Structures are given as C-alpha cells and as structure tokens.
Amino acid sequence: MQQAQVQQAETLKADAEVWTPAKIILNLDARCPVVLTLGYFGAYAMSDNDPAKAAALQSRYAELQKTVQPIAAELKQMAVSTSFVGQKFPAALNPRLEALAGELYGAVLQLYGDDALNELKQYVAVSAEGAVVDRVK
Prior knowledge:
Distance between the termini: 45 Å
Strand content: under 5%
Mean pLDDT: 85
Low-confidence stretches: none
C-alpha cells in the first residue's frame, strides 16, 4: 500500500513539473528543427577551403538564416507564451509546428536541393532517436 502511495506522489510531482528552457527548446526543435538545421548547414558553410565554394556556401547560408528568422521568432514566442508543465508536450502546438517545419524544409529544398534536404532529414531523425555516440575519454 505504501509503495502505491509513493508511486502516486511521484506521478503527481512529475505532472506538476515545470519545464526548463532547455527542455522546451529541445522539444520545439524536435518538431520544427530550426536549431539543428542552422547548425547543420552552418557547419558546412564554413568548411570548404576553396574560396569560391566557401563564398557560395556562406551566401546560401545567409539566405537560409533570413528565411528561417521568422520561424525562429515564432518558436521563441511559443516557448515564452505557452505553459509547459507536466510530462507531455502541449499537443495543441503540433499542427502549427508541422506547418513551420514544412516552411523550414521548403527553404532548405529551395536553397540546397533535394539531396541536402534528405541528408538533413536523416540527421534530424538520428538526432531525435537520441543516437549514442562513443566518446573518447
């Protein structure tokens, strides 16, 4: 009987948990991967040693940043104006997040092409799965 009460108390505590800003951003980004997208393409925008290719990549990345800025602003507004409490993400946000993700992926497709979009989606999927990375100690 006492174990059931302890478990019930733990469940109530989890249901009342207020989410940290990091948890909110991670959950928003899992549904509309602005942070992952900018990081993914930002890393490659600076990676080419050929000055002409590097300039083209940087220009494309700057255009992606401009396109994604309103999406990022809306996500930030969601993060500060929505109550994130309990164990579940507010499902009411999912339709809008799906629409924003569509806009994001559309921008990637337009700027980088189909192959880059597919690579990004694979990267996002692996990230969402919480891929285990071996770390050198």
